[in-house]
């Protein structure tokens, strides 16, 4: 499989920017159960940008590709007023082991491998309103690869899988629901959040992408009255290098949690698959 993703800086530190952009691009490969083989850099930098800064961005990306077990085999760079960086990634997977979004069945449990809130925390940081420890927690999450969670999904024979990125948890949940002709019921109280995300949402710090997601999903998602508006902001929030959302047969629940714990990785059971259509958000 072949995929591509790139974007403008989310954080000020060039190394972290490169690592986040790379991890985000690699995630599409893991969402299909593949392993990274090689990648090509895709970059646009201002003519006046310092070579040291460019080097740090490229190094951040290269370190993530190496961590993934792949190699960077070149790429392409142009001059542009706004920096942009990402990867074109080649992954390999056996045709009979490709994950799709379409296999969820009523009764399956839904697991998420990373907390939400990267968009809100990054937006708060851009206006110097984020606490340093909150920004660092978001960076740590965004630079963490989905490689081992994808391995676990393979081991427990997950029935549907997607990564949570620009459409937010609700958008990607809806894709899974529509593909499987089922409904996804999420429990807002079980959804993990990055430190500070709810605090910044309560301060009115939201992203433009969240507004677009809300508009697109207004007739596809229903909320219980008890779900607060601040929490709804987070559920619509676009994620960068978010976690994997997987539907797993209920008899696999203990194995899922044991495997994540054995690898010292976090995972949260956030809902279930039910008959119907769309996405339902409960307290």
Quick structural summary:
The protein is of the alpha/beta class and 283 residues long. It folds into two domains: 2-97, 60s Ribosomal Protein L30, Chain: A, CATH 3.30.1330.10; 109-282, Alpha-Beta Complex (Phosphoribosyl-aminoimidazole Synthetase, Chain A, domain 2).
Overview of the molecule:
With 283 residues, the chain is α/β, with parallel strands linked by helices. It has two domains: 2-97, 60s Ribosomal Protein L30, Chain: A (2-Layer Sandwich), CATH 3.30.1330.10; 109-282, Alpha-Beta Complex (Phosphoribosyl-aminoimidazole Synthetase, Chain A, domain 2), CATH 3.90.650. The chain has ten helices and eleven strands. It has helices at residues 14-30, 51-67, 118-126, 132-142, 147-155, 168-180, 197-202, 208-217, 229-236, 253-262, and strands at 2-7, 35-45, 71-79, 84-92, 109-112, 160-163, 183-187, 221-223, 244-248, 268-274, 278-282. Strands 6-9-5-10-7-11-8 form a seven-stranded mixed beta sheet, sandwiched between helices. A four-stranded mixed beta sheet has the order 1-4-2-3, covered by helices on one side. Helix 2 links the parallel strand 2 (35-45) and strand 3. The longest helix is centred in the first third of the chain and has 17 residues, at 14-30. The mean pLDDT is 97.
